[in-house]
Specification:
Number of helices: 4
GO cellular component, one term: cytoplasm
Distance between the termini: 25 Å
Largest sheet: none
Protein name: Transcriptional regulator WhiB
GO molecular function: 4 iron, 4 sulfur cluster binding; dinitrosyl-iron complex binding; DNA binding; metal ion binding; protein-disulfide reductase [NAD(P)H] activity
Organism: Streptomyces indicus
Family: Belongs to the WhiB family.
Structural class: mainly alpha
Number of domains: 1
């Protein structure tokens, strides 16, 4: 889930994002905690693809974005090279 500031415009996909309705604790868990609940929520989110695209374009390093963990996004970026 993006961390927005007052100066950051909210992406259109964020309005319907389930993470915005759930809260950050699932998407930014403590190290070693499970991300399965975040992935379950992402799986049914209409903004999942846009969220993942945002995370990859902005090199988001922490949390679950678009249904993928930090390690999964890193592996995806490496496979695209």
């Amino acid at each position: 889930m993006p961390r927005m500031t007052a100066a950051t415009p909210t992406p259109a996909w964020h309005e319907d994002a389930l993470c915005a309705q759930t809260g950050p604790e699932f998407f930014f868990p403590e190290p070693g905690s499970s991300v399965s609940e975040a992935k379950r929520i992402c799986a049914s989110c209409p903004g999942r693809a846009a969220c993942l695209d945002h995370a990859l374009r902005h090199d988001e390093r922490f949390g679950v974005w678009g249904g993928l963990s930090e390690k999964e996004r890193l592996a995806l970026r490496r496979s695209r090279r």
